[in-house]
């Protein structure tokens, strides 16, 4: 690191991009008090909610970071994947050689970042999901060979600000991870949609059906979390009395393995697309 180990577990961070996910990260870091100084590169300006934070300062260009570059321990890339090629070259010659680069951008590989920053750079690639915006996400991360145990510890702490963190050893797993947890919120939101629509077709008022569907999803997720040691299949069976209404519905959903097959195909398509986008 650029100074004492972990700066007493409070690294100085350059946050590149402060949109929804970048702001969620920063909000979490400040709440948990796990960072030292935070240098925010955001052309649109530092969001108002962070203006009065003593350890947060805003910059409108990579060049403006040069004056404080030696203080940076971690560079967190929180910009959209499509502008990464514009941002990274500007940072390459500014950030210290011993600063770790942590990306939360989808489809951006470690190899791609090594092309930008060099093969000796410590790089962490991660894949969060949108519930991270409210601190309820799950992020899966992988490192290159240059990341030390200390740097991995820092990355874990920074990512835990937006939810749970899991580590994998094989970067190729980030493609099915993207398909499952990265895209997963969309599947669950769609399930709320179709459940509410089915309720409407069954005779319920549209808004009433949507309220029921949303809260059923929220409550069921909370129950799964509260009873985390119980398999999901057991939780499902606990609701399904033999010969009852739930059993009648499950007979339809499980017929010919139709629902599993649909999700198999959906995740296969998303995984293939993730691989394609990473090339």
TrEMBL record:
Residue intervals of the Pyrroline-5-carboxylate reductase dimerisation domain: 171-277
GO terms under cellular component: cytoplasm
Catalytic activity: L-proline + NADP(+) = (S)-1-pyrroline-5-carboxylate + NADPH + 2 H(+); L-proline + NAD(+) = (S)-1-pyrroline-5-carboxylate + NADH + 2 H(+)
UniProt entry keywords in alphabetical sequence: Amino-acid biosynthesis, Cytoplasm, NADP, Oxidoreductase, Proline biosynthesis
Domain of life from the UniProt record: Bacteria
Pathway: Amino-acid biosynthesis; L-proline biosynthesis; L-proline from L-glutamate 5-semialdehyde: step 1/1
GO MF terms, alphabetically ordered: pyrroline-5-carboxylate reductase activity
Enzyme Commission code: 1.5.1.2
Gene Ontology biological process: L-proline biosynthetic process
Protein location: Cytoplasm
Binding residues annotated for NADP(+), in chain numbering: 16-21, 78-81
SUPFAM superfamilies for this protein: 6-phosphogluconate dehydrogenase C-terminal domain-like, NAD(P)-binding Rossmann-fold domains
Domain Pyrroline-5-carboxylate reductase catalytic N-terminal: 13-107
Family: Belongs to the pyrroline-5-carboxylate reductase family.
Function field: Catalyzes the reduction of 1-pyrroline-5-carboxylate (PCA) to L-proline.
NCBIfam families cross-referenced by the UniProt entry: proC
PANTHER family per record: PYRROLINE-5-CARBOXYLATE REDUCTASE, PYRROLINE-5-CARBOXYLATE REDUCTASE 3
Descriptive protein name: Pyrroline-5-carboxylate reductase
Species name: Micavibrio aeruginosavorus (strain ARL-13)
